[in-house]
Amino acid sequence: MALSTSDRAVVVEKIDRDPTTAEAALFENLWSEHCSYRSSRPLLGRFESDGEHVVVPPGDDAGVVALPEDENTYLAMGIESHNHPSYVDPYDGAATGVGGIVRDILSMGGFPIALTDSLYFGDFDREHSRYLLEGVVEGISDYGNSIGVPTVAGSVAFHEDYEENPLVNVACVGMLSADRLITAEAQEAGNNLVLVGASTGRDGLGGASFASEDIAEDAETEDRSAVQVGNPYREKLLIETNEALIEEDLVESARDLGAAGLGGASSELVAKGGFGAAINLDDVPQREPNMNATEILLSESQERIVYEVTDENVERVQELAARYDLEAAVIGEVTEDPNYTCTLDGEVAVDVPAEFVGEGAPLADLDTVEPEQPDEDRPDVDLEDAVETVLASPNTASKRWVYRQYDHEVQVRTAMRPGDDAALLAIREAETDTGLAISAGADPNWTDTAPYEGAFAAGLENATNIAAKGATPLAAVDCLNAGNPEKPEVYGEFSGIVDGLADACKDLSVPVVGGNVSLYNDSSTGPIPPTPTLTMVGTKPGFSAPSMSLSGDGTLVLVGDLAIGDDAEPRLGGSELLVETGGSDRFPELPDDPSGFIDTLADVADHEDTLAVHDASHGGLAVTLAEMVHDDAGADVTVDAADPVGALCHEQPGRAVIETTDPAAIADAFDGVAPVVEIGAADDSGTLDLTVGEQSLSFDAEAIADLRSVLEDELD
Q1: Most exposed: 286, 340, 431, 459, by fewest CB within 10 Å?
Q2: What is the pLDDT of residues 513-560, one digit of tens each?
Q3: Angle at 415 between CA 413 and CA 417, to 5 degrees
Q4: Where are the alpha helices (DSSP H) in 569-683?
Q5: How far apart are CA 112 and CA 425, in angstroms?
């Protein structure tokens, strides 16, 4: 990928000459879609990013929010996509995605405490999809486990349109006290720019531009040089070094070296403060001989951060870096002159306005075709076959094979492990013990069917996961993935997921404090489904929460369902059943009061008579109930329905099953907020007995586990 003719003309007009080779490469990468958001920026203003607890809104390496329970304790949140690299090299592509998002947290002064991974692959029955899955999971596991940051939440989805373009969306949450906060905004001319971490090689060259074009058929061989190679042990040393620098207050500002490498990080750092920079590329530590200016500037070698440091602190920064066997080189300084200049061997390689490099990319003006929902064309499916089909689908089957490979208990914070609706971490550093609930993911079947409604449902589902643990949603970061935006139908779908997710978060009063956009996820097989991954956090007093597993002692209540009853006509659009059996339908109706539902569910989940809570979503009520059953507890459930298959398999957003010893209290709490219906009772049978209309089914815990063991059976 080279600087386009139109972009080159804009550059020439601004600087009144032809750009040098290094300048052209710098503009090519920083004006790429991956860095400049030139296609998506006109839409991103639809997200609300302010709020009572927001400290740093979008625009920095990570967003920052204050804990409601302790305004002096902050959370830093960031999310990143490493999609194209993970297709070319699944192990290194995924591993370096973890490393990059962790460094975004470090550069805000935070200490990383949790990771989430949302992964999307082609059909599970294809060997190549399984190859990518295994490589990606191994990369995330090896890197996250080695640096001591637990992977506590996430999602895994399969869809045929990800076959040649998998998605790897990784988020990180960090913690810091208010006095540790730094940003990526240079503070004062004359301060030094100090590059700390690994030396610079030729790996990852052109990574930003590579991520901004459709995947070519020969990408696995031809684009391997654009994939970075990570070293988690060096990242661990960088984490420790960063902690020492922050603790001693040696840093004025910082930026992670990610997309576009040193050129991207240093130019953005000074431009954000209204300054320029003078950089001597000869002073950049290099691990390969004869590197030219373009290679030094745009290498995406991992485990590097650039810090702004005052003269009196440089020596101490270098001492601390040396303690951890890391390079710490003064490579330049912040200048009052707003130009970004770089020299190599005494010759000027770059001399352009810093702000123009980062903000000068012309915005795209793209045509849009509004998406339409499909007509109803439902297959005739037997109830037992329908239930067994959704239980055994790779999308709704157990993901234990994935999360068992992650160390989710390192740092000793994890109060609720992966496999439940949301993870729950113990934040003991706050003024009062605080539980931090974390949920992540999206459902491509929903947004493939109805981009707006599906994205709204994804936002609501993540909030429901958090509320099911008794926590109140606090903030979110998003990763918006789509195909080639130059295709009007793709841009229409992308616009739909932006609007849907923005409206959901607005209705729920959840500020979106950071994010990432990944477009051009297109290949010879066509575009991916529009995929709005969300990582959301919420808080609650204390660390205890109801599990999704039945206790065996309470009444089962279904709340929020708009399509249960003799007269109901549930919609199956976006459901796993239709994916597996074929057919189409409209997406289920969205609830009238999502905010009221979430607030009430969070309150009810903490009632002393609440024994278990589980979000009802992917796979419908059939999967929800099956996931709650185990060897020591079962349930006898009756659902009134003229459409038994629809009743058990529709995926209405904003629902939960609650096991309680006081069903009347649940009904009172949700009165005027959401529908409530008693559907049965839990027991100690270890069996799920279902009566739907005039039909009955029974599955014991062993049979359910066998049906849901698809991933383990194939991959172990």
Answers
A1: 431
A2: 999 999 999 988 899 999 999 999 999 999 999 999 999 999 999 999
A3: 105
A4: 576-581, 594-605, 620-628, 644-649, 663-669
A5: 13
Cα distance between residue 27 and residue 4, in whole Å:
10
Three-state SS for 218? coil
Give residue-wise pLDDT tens across range 144-166. Answer: 999 999 999 999 999 999 999 99
Q: What confidence score (pLDDT) does residue 215 get?
A: 55
Q: Which helix (H) or strand (E) holds 466?
A: helix 451-467
pTM score, whole prediction = 0.95
Q: HSE, CB side, 13 Å, CA atoms: give it for residue 168.
A: 32
Query: Cβ distance 203 to 222 under 8 Å?
Result: no
What is the rounded CA–CA span in Å between residue 303 and residue 326?
Answer: 10
CB-based contact 634:551 (threshold 8 Å):
no
Given a contact cutoff of 8 angstroms between Cβ atoms, the answer to whether 446 and 397 are in contact is no
185: left (phi over 0), alpha (psi -120 to 50) or beta: beta
- Residue 125 CA to residue 121 CA, distance in Å, equals 11
Q: In whole angstroms, what is the distance from residue 459 CA to residue 390 CA?
A: 23
Neighbours of 74 (CB within 10 A): 24
List, for residues 437-451, the tens digit of each pLDDT value: 999 999 999 999 999
pLDDT value, residue 226: 55
Q: At 713, list the tokens.
A: 């059976």
Could you list the beta-strand ranges (E) of 414-541: 414-416, 423-427, 434-441, 472-481, 512-518, 522-523, 526-527, 531-541
Q: What is the pLDDT of residue 50?
A: 93
- Tens-digit pLDDT profile for residues 661-681: 999 999 999 999 999 999 999
The phi, psi pair for 633, rounded to 5°, reads -150, 135
Residues 210/82, Cβ–Cβ less than 8 Å: no
The arrangement of strands across the sheet holding 276-280 comes to: 253-256, 304-309, 192-197, 327-335, 276-280, 339-344, 347-353
In this predicted structure, what is the pLDDT of residue 208? 52
In whole angstroms, give the CA distance from residue 309 to residue 313.
Answer: 6
Rounded Cα–Cα distance for residues 692 and 624 (Å): 15
User: Going by C-beta distance under 8 Å and a sequence separation of 6 or more, which residues neighbour residue 384?
Assistant: 697
Cα gap 123→125, rounded to integer Å: 5
86 — alpha (psi -120 to 50), left (phi > 0) or beta? alpha
The H or E element that residue 403 is part of is: helix 400-403
What proportion of the chain, given as a percentage, has pLDDT over 70? 97
Q: What share of the chain is helix, strand, coil (3-state, %, to 5)?
A: 35, 25, 35
Cα separation, 279 vs 340, in Å, equals 8
Q: Work out the pLDDT band at 212, boundaries 50, 70, 90.
A: very low
Residue 615 exposure: Cα atoms within 13 Å on the Cβ side = 26
What does the alpha-carbon distance between residue 473 and residue 201 come to, in Å, rounded to a whole number? 42
Q: How confident is the model at residue 227 (pLDDT cuts 50, 70, 90)?
A: confident
